[in-house]
């Protein structure tokens, strides 16, 4: 949390700066958490609206080509937990690319404001990885947290956006997303992990999605939603995997009017769930 707050504070002063300067800032404040990788940059899209994105790239040992995972942060912005997950994925044999969609755009926090530009950023990250000789381009997953978790659904939901992308993700992992605006019809397997004590993005909304029940903002049709695997952790709150929250006496805090809290048991199981899911879905054909 302290690392995230520092990154957010610095990012707020970088509105007019490019990604190269922002990467230098990230290296200064976040490098103690980074084990295996380096900070890189790539364009979010083609044309005059493009942004030079900053990202943390953590490859595993060996020449590859390796399967890969794109990581997307929540509405609080890029923080140390993104590095923690990226390094864990690298140790498991996956190329990890943790993307910062906010810092290069001069955004510190954007909660309650939709998915921002993460949908296009995630496919830009996929194109970046696919061009690397050490990446297996047809074996890439996308993994997101909170807002980033909702972006995973937007990326993989059956419809025009996913259909227009020339390169495809093989799988998705969504941590505590807002399930109220997605149909649940996915083009590839998706692992969804959330807590039943989450008062920000309730697990009940994800259960309604899985059941095909209509919800706020969406009328759902009957159909096969078995591509989504839902895991609900009893007693777990939003951001249950953010280890820095364990530094607080109550293992959590109020943020943006909601409870966020670390849960060791849920995190331990989530690590195993994610690893097994990736090993299964990103295996060589």
Global outline? globular
Radius of gyration: 18 Å
Determine the fraction of residues in helical runs and give it as a percent range. 25-40%
Give the strand line-up of the largest sheet.
1-2-4-3-5-6-7-8
CATH homologous superfamily title: Alpha/Beta hydrolase fold, catalytic domain
How do the helices and strands line up, and which of them pair or pack?
Blueprint: H1 2-11, H2 19-30, E1 38-43, E2 52-58, E3 66-72, H3 80-91, E4 95-100, H4 118-130, E5 135-145, H5 147-156, H6 160-163, E6 171-175, E7 190-195, H7 203-211, E8 228-233, E9 252-255, E10 258-261, H8 264-281
Parallel strand pairs: 3-4, 3-5, 5-6, 6-7, 7-8
Antiparallel strand pairs: 1-2, 2-4, 9-10
Walk me through the structure.
- With 285 residues, this protein is of the alpha/beta class.
- The protein has a single domain (2-281), classed as Alpha/Beta hydrolase fold, catalytic domain (Rossmann fold, 3-Layer(aba) Sandwich).
- Helix content is 31%, strand content 22%.
- It is built from 8 helices and 10 strands.
- The strands form 2 sheets. Strands 1-2-4-3-5-6-7-8 form an 8-stranded mixed β-sheet, with helices on both faces. A two-stranded antiparallel sheet has the order 9-10.
- Strand 9 and strand 10 form a beta hairpin.
- Helix 1 runs antiparallel to helix 2 (19-30) and helix 4 crosses helix 5.
- The longest helix is centred in the C-terminal third of the chain and has 18 residues, at 264-281.
- The protein is globular.
- The N and C termini lie far apart (40 Å).
- The model is unreliable at 1-33 (pLDDT under 50).
């Amino acid at each position: 949390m302290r690392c995230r707050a520092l990154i957010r504070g610095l990012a707020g002063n970088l509105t007019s700066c490019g990604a190269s300067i922002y990467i230098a800032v990230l290296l200064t404040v976040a490098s103690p958490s980074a084990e295996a990788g380096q900070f890189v940059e790539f364009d979010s899209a083609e044309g005059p609206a493009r942004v030079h994105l900053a990202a943390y790239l953590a490859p595993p040992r060996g020449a590859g080509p390796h399967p890969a995972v794109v990581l997307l942060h929540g509405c609080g912005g890029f923080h140390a937990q993104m590095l923690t997950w990226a390094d864990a994925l690298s140790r498991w044999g996956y190329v990890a690319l943790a993307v910062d969609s906010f810092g290069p755009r001069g955004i510190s926090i954007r909660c309650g404001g939709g998915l921002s530009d993460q949908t296009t950023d995630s496919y830009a990250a996929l194109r970046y990885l696919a061009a690397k000789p050490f990446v297996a381009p047809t074996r890439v997953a996308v993994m997101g947290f909170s807002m980033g978790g909702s972006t995973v659904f937007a990326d993989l939901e059956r419809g025009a956006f996913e259909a227009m992308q020339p390169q495809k993700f093989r799988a998705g992992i969504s941590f505590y997303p807002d399930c109220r605006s997605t149909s649940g019809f996915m083009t590839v397997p998706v692992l969804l992990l959330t807590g039943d004590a989450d008062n920000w993005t309730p697990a009940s909304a994800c259960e309604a999605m899985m059941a095909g029940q209509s919800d706020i903002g969406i009328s759902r049709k009957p159909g096969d939603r078995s591509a989504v695997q839902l895991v609900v952790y009893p007693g777990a709150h939003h951001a249950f995997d953010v280890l820095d929250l364990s530094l607080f006496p109550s293992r959590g805090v109020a943020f943006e009017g909601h409870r966020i809290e670390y849960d060791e048991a849920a995190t331990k199981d989530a690590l195993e769930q994610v690893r097994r899911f990736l090993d299964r879905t990103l295996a060589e054909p």
